[in-house]
Request: fold
Amino acid sequence: MKLWTNLFGYSEIALRMPSILFSLLTGYVVYLIGGIWSAAFFLFNPLIVYYSQEARMYMMVTFFLTASLYYFLKSKNLILFNLFLILSFYTFYGSIFLIATILLYLLFKKRYKVFLVSCFLFLVSFVLISSLLYQQFLHSRIALSNVTHWSLVLGKANIKNLLLIPIKFSIGRISFYPKWLYWGIAGIWTGFVLFTIKTVFIKTVFYLLIFPLVLGFLVSFFIPMLQYFRFIYLIPIITILLSLNKNTSMYRYIVIIGFVVFSSAYLLLPQFHREDWKSLVKNLPKNRPVYMIKASSDPVKYYQNDLKVKELTLLRPMSYGGQGKLEKEIIVIPYTADIYGLDYKKGLTKSGYQQKEVKNFRELSFEIWRGR
Reply:
């Protein structure tokens, strides 16, 4: 991204474009592995459509792992197979679950030479960044200790998080009320998708799909990370399974139509989009102190880089300003305050503030507090 932004800048389109390109490249590799139906299932998958527009690493790691699978299943090129495995790990550490699965499969199939070479190369690549890994591990432990509900964000090992993986893989990131209707539609559609691939459960690719989830679930008892988007690199395997199915083409058309419907719902209905930071920042009152969790303030600074954000966790409303009075009016952006377990409202109320107004934007809000 450093190289990319030096060339193309920091506009929203520029920042999101790498994910779009990696999703298209992944679609091409999926086509090489499983054919046109696999590519169609992948490119129209609602979760892929969603994360193809996010300036994050998930589509990049999906491409690297899918390319590695291509050289593992089709081309038998040992060098490129291992190169893409290593690149995937350097891109996103969560790829280790599929990497470990592939290595165990090599051992199970008694391909000892390939197994030993791959393990050696991966071990060398691991050692090269071991100091960085250790520092990041320490920082993650500090975050888990200091941020009250951070483990819930990362994804604890529980049945709900496990069930959400196939559901989100099938319908994408949309959610709606009433919840009974959401779970009903999501459950029926996910069940149909799973039914469509049931005839190929014994295939190698099915092992490559299930075992990483088992590993991720077990590891999340100790290091929470059981969130569906961290396993998005498994969707190409699902699309290959769908294309291998021997059912009639009617099933394939139904799956494609379903994916298009859920993708269109996300694309065309703003209520399913991510947080509307642009509108929030645009509507912030001028010349008012803004308080929020500074660790979560990057989106605000992106849209207004000269905005001075004060740390909400250090807010001491009993302190007086330069004129011996409480700040007359402050703005609070409560984003992630609940994750930090911060009851800022209680402190503000005790200190003589009243909440005068709340302005809501998609999945976001800011509050105006005035001193009495």
